[in-house]
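Issue 218. Parser rejects a valid record. Input:
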Amino acid sequence: MSAPSLDLNAIGHPIVKSAIEAMNSRNKKQWYALFSDNPRFTDDGNSHDFTDWCEKELFGSSLAYLASIDKVEDRGLTIYGRFHSDQWGDFKTFLKFHVDNGKITKMAVGQANY
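Output the parser choked on:
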């Protein structure tokens, strides 16, 4: 099973657009290539090892994907939408990216109330 098609045209930042595309298509090679060697990562404000979290939450045995893009802020660096996880269910979320020198150096995700 795979994620349904998602219109990414609302995302103005090309690196973030590529990251969402890679995440939803479960393309680990493309996903990791967009990030710096040791990006900082938080989930609901709690620090996690980036690779461990991605392997478990995004690329593990359960399907996880961004199901909708409801709002885009910060010139395309912050995305709000509905997230689906076979493990955690469906919920509103945010994904906030920091990009330096063409690589994502920090990513924060969490549940959102918008």
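Fixed in the parser; the record now loads. The chain has a mean pLDDT of 94.
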